[in-house]
Known about the structure:
Number of strands of chain A: 12
Strand content of chain B: over 45%
Helix content of chain B: under 10%
Order of helices and strands of chain A: EEEEEEEEEEEE
Largest interface: A-B, 24 and 26 residues
Largest sheet of chain A: 6 strands, mixed
Number of helices of chain A: 0
Distance between the termini of chain A: 41 Å
Oligomer: heterodimer
Order of helices and strands of chain B: EEEEEEEEEEE
Low-confidence stretches of chain B: none
Amino acid sequence: AQKVTQAQTEISVVEKEDVTLDCVYETRDTTYYLFWYKQPPSGELVFLIRRNSFDEQNEISGRYSWNFQKSTSSFNFTITASQVVDSAVYFCALSEAESGNTPLVFGKGTRLSVIA
Amino acid sequence: EPEVTQTPSHQVTQMGQEVILRCVPISNHLYFYWYRQILGQKVEFLVSFYNNEISEKSEIFDDQFSVERPDGSNFTLKIRSTKLEDSAMYFCASSEFRSDTQYFGPGTRLTVL
């Protein structure tokens, strides 16, 4: 069965610090997709990134970077030089492709607080 | 930039009443979803919809729930007889293809009294 674990419930950092949010997943499929979504205090879910299981290249987008390692079933998210606007709950999610399951399975989320 | 919209943003209802939550997916998307998030908890899948029929549903999506695409733009979630435990944020999402990125609406906060 598919599962996403975000072991860090809450993280608090001071502005300009780097922070890494951990995500570990479980799946039996060899083809799957991993996602990160941001949920700011206003409540909406904002898409950040989608990676497929065959693409292990790390990705950088501005201050955001993602480290995908199939060997450890992890898809970690790093924010460099954090800002107050980064304060939000961040969800990692998994979607399996082979079994026909397309729904997203979410982790419990990590609440990030960036203090000025 | 196209986005998913949802109405109302907040719905308050009495236990046992029927509610209909409305969503307008992104216009060229073919797959539609409903998720819910009980306050402070993770986002949970309810149902997916493609080609005018349910393609998958979770255990949460029991007989009191139904979905419909009444016209070419709207996608609705109906809860027939609301319970206190239905209080949650309900998110609609859509994607262009199966397994593609799902884009979420802003959510409808449902409060059942």
